[in-house]
Write a structure and sequence with these properties.
Elements: E1 2-4, E2 7-9, H1 11-38, H2 46-70, H3 75-99
Antiparallel strand pairs: 1-2
Helix pairs in contact: 1-2, 1-3, 2-3
Length: 105
Amino acid sequence: MADVFGYTLDQNAVYLISAVLLLKAVDVVLGVLGALQHGTFDVRRLPAYLSGTVLGQIVPVVLLAMVADLHVGLQAAFYVSAVFLILKLIADLRDKVGRLGPQGR
């Protein structure tokens, strides 16, 4: 069990949420690097991206983890959704890494 903002979460849930946060942080960095490389980076678009895409993926996973901790029947839903999100983020990272470099599009 881990204490997150005064709320106790299962240790496995904390590991999955940490993986999501780490992958999303790398995704954001690669996205910014790619936009800088292609000359399309606009700092004014970054807050909208962070509040929409980042929070739109991370907050629901954290809330589902908290609800799943209260109701055992929702634990499977949390684990499945977290694993699918991790797989999606890994695929996104693979795509972004492929677009970086001199031959990237």
